Target: DUF1801 domain-containing protein
Amino acid sequence: MNDDVTQYINKTQPWQIDVCEKLRAMIGETIPGVEERLQYGKPHYLKNGHYAAVIAVAKAKVSFMVFNATDIPEVKGFLRAMGTGERKTVDIKEGDNVDYDALAGILEKTTANL
Model:
């Protein structure tokens, strides 16, 4: 666990801290040996030196983005494509019921070849 990432998370709202800590734990379980660092002002997660995921906190949401997701289909109301579709993002708002197992499955697929 990176202290800078912990500080980033702890500056957010209580519900966002909860979501971020659950995402952080899910990432650690899904990618053994993942590198966690604060980069571009946000927590980034790398596998073998390659970007795997990013957590970004905004005023009313927590965004979880995965890289290498060209082959992962969009899911309306859940998973949206960013740019060319190589990145996919889930926006989590206060009170949302988050399927962390589904997110772990997506992350597993997107990091399998890293």
Remarks:
- The longest strand covers residues 50-58.
- The beta strands are 35-39, 42-47, 50-58, 61-66, 80-82, 87-93.
- The mean pLDDT is 96.
- Helices lie at 3-10, 14-30, 100-111.
